[in-house]
Structures are given as C-alpha cells and as structure tokens.
C-alpha cells in the first residue's frame, strides 16, 4: 500500500507542521561527509516533496561539526527557497555568518542537563544561556525569528533522569530570552508518553502553551510515534522529524536517528491530518539518500514503500 486508510481521532489538530531536520540533525551525524551539491539536492528534493519547513544546516564551529562546515556554501548554492528554513547558531560568530547568507530564522540550542551543555557547547548550562542571550537579542533586532531547542528533556546518558522542574526552568529561560518556538528534545530517545504529557502540563502551568511548543523525538527506543501522538492530543501541532530517520548527535552517547518523517506522515495521513507532503516523492528521496550514504533507511515506512515503488521512475528528483 502507498497510502493508509484514513480514520480520524477526536481532539487532534487538523493540520500539523512537519519541521524537517534531515539536512541538519541527519547529516551532522554521518561519518560520510556529502559534497555540498548533494546536500543542496537533498534540500531541493525535500522541498519538492511538500516539506515547507526544512532546517538547512548549522553555523557552528567546523572543528566541532565538520560534516556541516560548508554551511555558507550550501546557502549560496540554494539561493532563496519557498517556506521556512532555519539554521542552527550557537554564538555571535554563527549569527554573523548566517545573516551574511540572508537567513531569516535561526535556532539556538540549550540543554536541560549540565553534562550535555558541557559536551555539546563547551559551556556550563548557565554559561550557555549567557552565550545565547546576546545572539537572540541581536537576531530579534535584525527582524529574524528565533527557535529555541532544549535537549535532554527526558533523560541524559551521563546523568540519567533529568528533573522536570529543571527542564521547565531551561525552557522558560529560552522563552524569556525571546525564542518564539520551543522545541522539546528527546535527544537519546528515552521518553514515554506519560512523561511527555507530564512535561506539557508543567510547561502549561509555567505559561507556555502547546501552541508555542514543538516536539523533537529521537527514536532510539521506538517510542517516537507514540510520544508524538500524545503530544498532538495535548495540543502540540509542530513536530520535528528527519527524512528516512537520519540523525543523531555527535556529542550525545546513544542518540540515534530522529523520528522518520515518512513514519510520521503515514500516521498523520492515516488520522486524516493534512501535512502537504507527497509521501511517495519523500520515500524516493530517502531511498536516494540511503544509497548515497551506503546504508538502508531505518524507517519502516520507507522500507515498506520501497517494495511498491518503481525505482527507475524519476519522480522526486528536484528541478532546479
Ligand atoms: P569552543 O571550542 O568553546 O569555542 O566551542 P571557541 O569560541 O573557543 O571556538 C573554537 C574555534 O571554533 C575557534 O577557531 C573559533 O573561531 C571557531 P580557532 O580560533 O581555534 O581557529 N568558531 C566558529 N567558527 C565558525 N562558526 C562559528 C564558530 N564558533 C567558534 N559559529 C561552540 C563552543 C559553541 C562554538 C562549540 O561547542 C560548537 O560549535 N558546538 C556545536 C555542537 C553541535 O553543533 N552539536 C549538534 C547540534 S545540537 C543537537 O543535535 C541537538 C538537537 O537536535 C535537539 C535534540 O536532539 O535534543 C538540536
Ligand atoms: Mg536532535
């Protein structure tokens, strides 16, 4: 089958924004560094599959993430694209590079745990918030939108449990700093649905409604779709995912791929929720990417759809 039979469930949004992170969260973690032209082709194919929010790359230190060292060249090659196309920025140097490339939205990325702040940003948790504050205020002055990620919201590989009160404090600090959308990261994929609901309730009590939140589940323990469904039932309507289930974080032990966009789209379309995505074109893109990376996609939907597609058919190739 190429499309699910659809039946609605009460209490879900009629449309969900899929925030695609494959070119950033996906490619940052691959040992094979793709040529810039291939990355640009990946983005174009994602956009032509109907994904209107695609995170393009990171303007971080190339010493820390060599996979994305070509961010400036990638943006020059892509030129203007329809839709929403944020990039990750950790500091003022990153913001300068991003604005020089004409970026309209950035994402800063904090951690709910001390250990991951140190490992991912070389700063303590509180130092990292001080690092972001001038970046966010300058970005806002320049008229950019700012998304704020908070990683390790449901557990940390070095510290174990991360107290919800600590998560809420960091998310609150990012909101107060000026981030309009807050993405709740399950960096190592350990969340389960009850915990997701608990965090959303605590954030609501802190004055952060689900309309300001996005969820960012990695699928390490196979819980990402279940977690997504409860988040939707509790009012979240922006979901991060990665084409073909690419992804991870080079600085988080045991972070595997993100929720696969194809698995998410299958579920959403089955629930009668609009996404704007052409699932077949998207699967062709992930199959093409899997070939480039030399390993099969971990997405169940990509694998199931592959057997039904004529792979010599050129649909899904982007026109420049
Ligand atoms: P540092 O080493 O303390 O920084 O790193 P520094 O200021 O001392 O700079 C070190 C070198 O990098 C210097 O070069 C700087 O110029 C250069 P040198 O003088 O040695 O030749 N540099 C830069 N170059 C270009 N662009 C820049 C930049 N900044 C410094 N922006 C820093 C601190 C924050 C820079 C570093 O730790 C870093 O870049 N970290 C990023 C790590 C990262 O990208 N991790 C993955 C993304 S987070 C994630 O995946 C989680 C998420 O998906 C959500 C979830 O799943 O939970 C978002
Ligand atoms: Mg991530």
Topology, element by element:
Elements: E1 17-20, H1 22-26, H2 36-48, E2 53-54, H3 71-78, E3 87-88, H4 92-100, E4 105-111, H5 114-121, H6 125-141, E5 145-151, H7 164-177, E6 181-186, H8 193-205, E7 213-217, H9 224-233, E8 238-241, H10 261-270, H11 279-293, H12 300-306
Helix pairs in contact: 2-3, 2-11, 7-8, 8-9, 11-12
This protein binds 3-hydroxy-3-methylglutaryl-coenzyme A and magnesium ion (MG).
Give me some keywords for this one.
8 strands; binds magnesium ion; TIM Barrel; binds 3-hydroxy-3-methylglutaryl-coenzyme A; 12 helices; eight-stranded parallel beta sheet; alpha/beta; 320 residues
Concise structural overview:
Helices cover 40% and strands 12% of the residues. It has twelve helices and eight strands. The protein has an eight-stranded parallel sheet.
Query: Mind telling me which CATH architecture this is?
Result: Alpha-Beta Barrel
Helix-strand string: EHHEHEHEHHEHEHEHEHHH
What is the count of helical runs?
Answer: 12
Share in helix: 40-55%
For the biggest β-sheet, the strand order reads 2-1-8-7-6-5-4-3
How many strands? Answer: 8
CATH superfamily: Aldolase class I
How would you describe the overall organization of this protein?
With 320 residues, this protein is an alpha/beta fold. The protein has a single domain (17-306), classed as TIM Barrel (Alpha-Beta Barrel). It has helices spanning 22-26, 36-48, 71-78, 92-100, 114-121, 125-141, 164-177, 193-205, 224-233, 261-270, 279-293, 300-306; strands at residues 17-20, 53-54, 87-88, 105-111, 145-151, 181-186, 213-217, 238-241. Strand 5 (145-151), helix 7 and strand 6 form a beta-alpha-beta unit. The longest helix has 17 residues, at 125-141. The protein is globular, with a radius of gyration of 18 Å. The model has no long low-confidence stretch (mean pLDDT 95). It binds 3-hydroxy-3-methylglutaryl-coenzyme A and magnesium ion. 3-hydroxy-3-methylglutaryl-coenzyme A is lined by residues 25, 28, 58-65, 88, 90-91, 93-94, 97, 109, 120-122, 149, 151, 185, 187, 216, 218, 249, 251.
